[in-house]
């Protein structure tokens, strides 16, 4: 291994060390209590070292946000093997909701917190991770149209509508507004609600 390759590998190892520590602190303590100094204490380096890799806390959390999207996209992309397009769309919704329930902090980072998007705004870039996941949903809806489940419709508007419904369900759950139900069936109730909503769209489009 050459000197340049070794240095690049060392830089990547350090990035990974910083991100792992940041993720651990974020999942344990939340965004507000996770600081560059706290991360530095965990990895036993000075805060100045972290600033060599990440401009600020927002940029660091944007990197965590990208990792979370990769995890979600891997989960949803695996469903492309389902042959029936409507069943695939239903299962995508189920997996999206389940991901949010099992990873509430990551979901908050991906879709609710301002920090990652503020990092993008500073770099004058578009939200590529959002576009990729939204593009996958658009593809799934287009496949439903091609198969005759939906009539020809505005795919983008349909995707926004379905995504908004899923996000609404998840947000109600994450903010503990489903705690009024005492039967521990919150996930099942959300999954059933999504199926009902999607079938209603199927009947009306």
UniProtKB/TrEMBL annotation:
A single Pfam family it belongs to is: TetR_C_33
Q: Which residues bind DNA?
A: 35-54
**Where do the HTH tetR-type domain residues begin and end?**
12-72
Q: Which UniProt keywords apply?
A: DNA-binding, Transcription, Transcription regulation
Q: Which organism is it from?
A: Runella defluvii
Q: Does the keyword Zinc-finger apply?
A: no
* Keyword Aminoacyl-tRNA synthetase found: no
Q: Which InterPro entries did the record assign? A: Homeodomain-like_sf, HTH-type_TetR-like_transc_reg, HTH_TetR, MT1864/Rv1816-like_C, Tet_transcr_reg_TetR-rel_C_sf
**Which domain of life does the UniProt lineage start with?**
Bacteria
Molecular function as annotated in GO: DNA-binding transcription factor activity; transcription cis-regulatory region binding
The protein depicted here goes by the name: AcrR family transcriptional regulator
